[in-house]
Design goal:
Strand content: 15-25%
Largest sheet: 7 strands, mixed
Helix content: 25-40%
Shape: globular
Order of helices and strands: EEHHEHHEEEHE
Oligomer: single chain
Number of domains: 1
Number of helices: 5
């Protein structure tokens, strides 16, 4: 378990990954997340310590990370949202005459990373059994894939992380996987 706090006042943008334990017969589940991340009590309780204040440069790197993640998972098939889409807020008087529009796919993925009151976003990739989930207000990407693909995940994580360092960081996942979709 990685519990060492970074000594540098401005630690480099780093991508962490871990295989999350699951019952036998369940598809493989991996977590992938950037650091330093804003302080998160759940991550701290799970044993993570690489916290820091994020800025515009960090946001740009996290945005590029998501772009690379979607490209890497996209080789498994066409993206489709399997969860209920989050919808844009409408003032009460407009709701009488119109239906709120759903956010775009990328926003569907990003919003639950920051807002825990929104439902999880689950994206499937073709019929491959590969999916991506975000939610609970944690900046973590939950990636599910068939067990037959699991051995390739460390290389996939390194490719997604590039040009940034990638580190396997095992945590107490019971503290972060309370969602019924984990």
């Amino acid at each position: 378990m990685n519990t060492a706090a970074p000594a540098d006042a401005n630690p480099p943008f780093t991508v962490h990954w871990s295989r999350v334990p699951r019952p036998d017969g369940e598809p493989a589940l991996f977590a992938l997340w950037p650091s330093p991340m804003n302080h998160d009590a759940c991550f701290e309780a799970a044993g993570f310590r690489a916290f820091g204040d994020n800025d515009a440069a960090w946001d740009a790197k996290a945005d590029a990370l998501l772009t690379r993640l979607l490209a890497a998972l996209g080789v498994h098939g066409e993206t489709r949202q399997t969860s209920t889409p989050a919808k844009k807020h409408l003032p009460w008087y407009r709701r009488l005459f119109s239906t709120p529009a759903a956010f775009g796919l990328r926003e569907q993925i990003e919003l639950p990373l920051h807002r825990d009151e929104l439902p999880d976003c689950i994206i499937g990739f073709g019929v491959s059994g590969v999916s991506l989930r975000t939610g609970d207000g944690h900046h973590v990407f939950w990636i599910t894939m068939p067990e037959s693909c699991a051995a390739a995940f460390p290389g996939l994580a390194a490719g997604i992380a590039a040009p940034h360092p990638v580190v396997r960081t095992d945590l107490d996942w019971a503290r972060l996987t309370q969602s019924p979709h984990a």
